[in-house]
Amino acid sequence: MTSKATILSETVCQLGEGPTYDADTDTLFWFDILGQTLHERQLGSGAERRHALPLMASALAIVDTDRQLLATEAGLFLRQRASGELVLVQPIEADNPATRSNDARVHPCGAFWIGTMGKKEERAAGAIYWFMGGELRTLFTGVTIPNATCFSPDGTTAYLTGLVSGVLHEVACDPGSGMPTGKPRIFRDHRGETGSLDGAVVDAEGVIWNALWGAGRVDAYSAAGGLLESVPVPARKASCPAFIGANADRLAVTSAWAGMNEEERAADPHAGKTFLLDIPVRGRLEPKVLL
Fold this sequence. Notes:
The chain is mostly beta strands. Helices cover 2% and strands 49% of the residues. It is built from one helix and 24 strands. It has a four-stranded antiparallel sheet with strand order 1-24-23-22, with no helix packed on it. The protein has a four-stranded antiparallel sheet with strand order 2-3-4-5, with no helix packed on it. A four-stranded antiparallel sheet has the order 6-7-8-9, with no helix packed on it. Strand 3 (27-32) and strand 4 form a beta hairpin.
């Protein structure tokens, strides 16, 4: 396959994750989870900044132009963009030092789904939570590595991994609250295939774009679960995509080098960088979270 990817950011992350685009400021944010760093790149100017964090964080939701909500190993923190000040909004597993946050995304109604996992990837150590309007609820327990959390454009379907290894599930949702209304069903069974299901986003046409950790690509699935396209990424551990640009018509993808030895890193020189995929997409801008 011919690569359609270019390097968007040369910044190397040990575990690049959680890319989120803020259309109001034309800025892409992403995390190095293990490096406890929040990165940002203003797309128009290309200017980049790094923000050291006091704890591991993995995902970001936009509150407004001045504030962000960060999913961290201790819970949800409100971050002031100008000062970087963090204020705890909602503890999540703060009394369990063996777990941390991982994948998270905002439902079209403004609810935030947050996944947790064992720091050593222990089986069934995590959970998936729902947060909106100051209320936290547990949706699923016994989760191993929560990933691919994303939602259909109308908010009636959620997608997620972590319930069964190698399986992408779908679950019916109330579009007004973002709460599940049914039981998870198998959407795509990836067991026995190359790579692991990682982060995902859904475009305006209902196509799911899923990063394949260990396979160096992003796969596009139809709403019926069929494979539409595979786009190579120049790093084996592609981790998570995000729509970027004023029209959400481009796709950025983070990556990682975590778990690689020196020989493997030498063979994968772009591991940990963030990429831009040169493919036509009709994406969707991230909804703002409702505190």
